[in-house]
Amino acid sequence: MSLRIVVGVPKLWTETIETHRHQVRDAIMDTAATLAFEHGLRSVTMAQIAEETGIGRATLYKYYPDVDAILRAWHQRQIAAHMTQLAEARDRVSDPGRRLDVVVRAYARIAHQTRSHHDTEVGGFLHRDEQLAHAQRQLHDLVSGLIAEAVRGGDIRADTPPGELATYCLHALNAATSLPTQAAVDRLVTVTLAGLRSASGPEDPVHPR
Q1: Number of H helices and number of E strands within the chain?
Q2: Are 136 and 173 in contact, with CB atoms under 8 Å apart?
Q3: Residue 85: enclosing H or E segment and its boundaries?
Q4: Is residue 206 part of a domain?
């Protein structure tokens, strides 16, 4: 009779290794993005990233094949974080009109905070990323759904389909990338929301006929 002893990898050890790998990926992505925005996309090399991150080049290549792949991964992480922010903003309130308001304001803040990335060589490269198109569809669906809820609550105008209003709203808010101050962004949000509201909405003045 023989005993077969199976020794598995302890769960804590597995989690520790995965945490370490996640931290290494984050460090690689952050370093590559910083170098690319500071010095230009095509001036960054894998050797520079390895040196700045403090890991060997062989280790770096185990994670990513080239600089473009690193920057795409960084961009995808940024997009996911922004979508999480918007979902969290939506879920903090229950009133349909208020939910739209907080999501619109959160999106405008994000656009304003990332404005320095848009008019750069790196920004142009990242805007060709397929993940961005997918995120834009997600964002449009999110805002369109909130608008539809607010229409049913009587807060938002019902003379235009929610999808069209969402397109109008997001195009307007993208102007936040060119505004110099948060105060200007707040005014942009106020004007954009005013264009969405029902004529009898709570924040619209009632004009005598």
Answers
A1: 10, 0
A2: no
A3: helix 67-91
A4: no
d(CA 172, CA 141): 16
Q: What is the pLDDT of residues 107-166, one digit of tens each?
A: 999 999 887 665 567 777 777 777 788 889 999 999 999 999 999 999 999 999 999 999
* 110 token code pair: 């994000």
Range of the domain at 85: 68-200
3-state secondary structure of 155: coil
Q: Are 24 and 55 in contact (CB under 8 A)?
A: yes
Find the length of the chain.
209
Distance CA 33, CA 64 (A): 14
Structural domains in the chain (count):
2
In whole angstroms, how far apart are CA 88 and each of 43, 45, 57, 60, 92? 37, 37, 38, 34, 6
pLDDT band of residue 189 (cuts 50, 70, 90) is very high
